Task: inverse folding
């Protein structure tokens, strides 16, 4: 598996920590406030490092991506995390892998191959076995929110694949612009809930700091770097790593052990990611040989 794919895979692995941290330390905060606290500070930090603004003619596209990939994504993600078990929310969200494959057809003109569909299907089957085997009654609102963040994530990923980055823009610039704009758009909606911050514990602030600096700034940079260097469908198929992380954290910290069905699911997830990496490496080698 190549270095670019490995670095990109770190992003969903980090994002998988969101569910445990949210339900353990900051479950009293509403989703709008959580989303704002997560993306705006990260965006401002990265913008200070970037020291660039989007070029003329790109503000509209950056704003659309900021709404889809940052503002809506994180608000819907937190809403799902507050209404569903973490593994279930992450599982439904991992459907973005299949949605990327399907949306890339009309928006990018990329007809899904049998391999694309097979790997996406294997990943979804794996996360379903991991997270949905308990049979507990699930919140309809939580499921709708999880489907929502899967859809906006997939649509944002494919639109970026169609538009690409602005000329001369680095991954740092793209992420800084999107996080800052997305966070600023959420501020007016989140302000009424600001008094709830008075009840956040020191552990809660530590969790928010980690989710902002590592779970957002660093992870988003790694993900954006991957989108700039790898085929969009290949990046999208890494999404099942997030629910896998969520389930493993439950095992370690909540002492919820994997059942045989969940072990099979974990094997399917890992196999789909590894085969995805091997397929990408084969395509690269074939392209170089043809060149």
Result:
């Amino acid at each position: 598996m190549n270095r670019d794919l490995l670095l990109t895979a770190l992003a969903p692995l980090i994002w998988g920590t969101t569910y445990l941290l949210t339900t353990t330390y900051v479950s009293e905060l509403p989703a709008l406030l959580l989303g704002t606290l997560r993306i705006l500070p990260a965006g401002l930090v990265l913008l200070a490092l970037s020291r660039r603004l989007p070029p003329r003619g790109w503000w509209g596209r950056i704003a659309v991506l900021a709404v889809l990939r940052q503002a809506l994504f994180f608000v819907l993600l937190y809403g799902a995390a507050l209404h569903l078990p973490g593994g279930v929310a992450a599982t439904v969200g991992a459907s973005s892998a299949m949605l990327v494959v399907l949306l890339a057809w009309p928006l990018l003109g990329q007809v899904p191959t049998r391999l694309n569909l097979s790997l996406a299907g294997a990943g979804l089957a794996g996360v379903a076995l991991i997270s949905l085997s308990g049979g507990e009654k699930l919140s309809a609102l939580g499921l709708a929110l999880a489907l929502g963040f899967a859809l906006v994530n997939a649509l944002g990923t494919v639109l970026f694949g169609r538009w690409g980055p602005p000329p001369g823009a680095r991954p740092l610039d793209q992420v800084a612009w999107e996080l800052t704009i997305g966070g600023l758009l959420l501020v007016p909606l989140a302000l009424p809930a600001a008094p709830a911050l008075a009840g956040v514990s020191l552990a809660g602030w530590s969790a928010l700091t980690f989710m902002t600096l590592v779970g957002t700034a660093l992870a988003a940079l790694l993900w954006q770097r991957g989108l700039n260097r790898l085929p969009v469908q290949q990046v999208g198929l890494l999404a099942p790593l997030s629910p896998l992380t969520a389930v493993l954290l439950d095992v370690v910290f909540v002492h919820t052990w994997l059942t045989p069905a969940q072990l099979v699911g974990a094997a399917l997830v890992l196999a789909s990611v590894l085969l995805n990496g091997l397929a990408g490496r084969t395509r690269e080698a074939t392209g170089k040989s043809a060149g």
Remarks:
- The chain is about 80% helix and 0% strand.
